[in-house]
Hints:
Keywords: Membrane, Transmembrane, Transmembrane helix
Number of strands: 0
Largest sheet: none
Radius of gyration: 23 Å
Strand content: under 5%
Shape: globular
Number of helices: 22
Transmembrane segments: 64-84, 96-122, 142-159, 190-208, 338-359, 371-395, 401-418
Structural class: mainly alpha
Amino acid sequence: MTKAIKFLPFFLFLCWLALFILQPVALFNDSPGYMADARNLFDPSYHTIRPVLFPFFLRVVDTLHIKLSIAALVVNTASFWYLLKMASGRWMSTGNALFLSAFFLMTGIWSYCGTCLTETILPSVELWMFISLVRIIREKRIAFMILYAVAICLLGTLLKPWIMLMVTGTAVLLLAAALLLPAFKSARVPSAVLLLVSGISFAVSFRYNQSKTMETANLVMLMVSSGNEGKLRDRLANDKGLTPDSAAFIAALVTDIDTINHKYYGNAWDASTAHAVKYLNVWDKGDVPAIKKGFHLMYFEHFRDELGLCRLSLQRYVIDLGLGAACLNMTYKPELPGLRSFAIPLLVAATLGFIVFNFKRLTSGPLLQDPLTIFTLVVLLASVGFCLFLCLAGANELQRNVLPGVLFQLYALTYFAYRKDYVALPPHDAPTL
């Protein structure tokens, strides 16, 4: 039985490998842009709005003549395996095999390996960010804390700049926990270093992040998907104090939203490319002031509008995504036939079994007296907040948009479940250079 369990992850790996060998890499609307970025990566005259880490990976893979999907499969698998080794202290064990098999059952992670999208390497990049975060908290030398913090910030900024919101939020919560909870006070210096480095990184890279983020496109996608245009119609019909210019602007906004939703099926990019909208053109920089003005009218005129945004975010995260589980059980081509039909029930059963067999360990002692529990709760809280924010970034690809936040939750829970002897710095062991 033990040998069969240890063989299972290798079998699943070979299944995914065979699939990626047989299937061509799936291309989407973003893919040609990434490939062009990879070809022109070192051309100083070339300008792109995309971060450079994934194009760099494409360039390396192309130079080595390795198929993208196979390279991504190997990199992501090796990263997961290292996390398990770090948590258990062993490269191979029955527990490692079970956890690795569980990872291979999550179609939402591995199907991206067969695509030419940023999410192809997202699991491994975020995993190394999480590993660096664990090492910061356990590190005694300030120089190494700074090194790990810089690595986290570089990986996040160069892959998806928005991930820095997760990094900064985690640093704030870690420092708050270290200051308020005696059991976690050994993390005060590491969390302060992370917060300082992430704050400096955020400030230094702010212009770069803005240049690599489609902020106005995200605003437009929220405007057309939230159902709030009814508020604009009511105001247009009932507000007698509107000036002719304001009334014309609101009417044009409503028309643009209807055009995007009904003629282009919610795709603001296609509507903008066809120049079918007056103010909500995501490609035209001249429309940015109008988009921001319209966004303010829809969501920030009254306090109840902001509450409506919070309610919409919660609804998408809890109901539409099933607390993020839908992000791990979707496919972006290709997928192993039949895997999604039984993967989630099997994973739920395995999770319940783990809780039952480890109930005594998980509930022994006060909840906030265990450093590992505190660390896990902080990362989970930060990642849930990050997911709620990402739920507002766009509804046309909600599972893809929220995946970065869900992966951090997955890694934190995996480390918590497997790491039974988490060692934090004792109070008297002050960090040193």
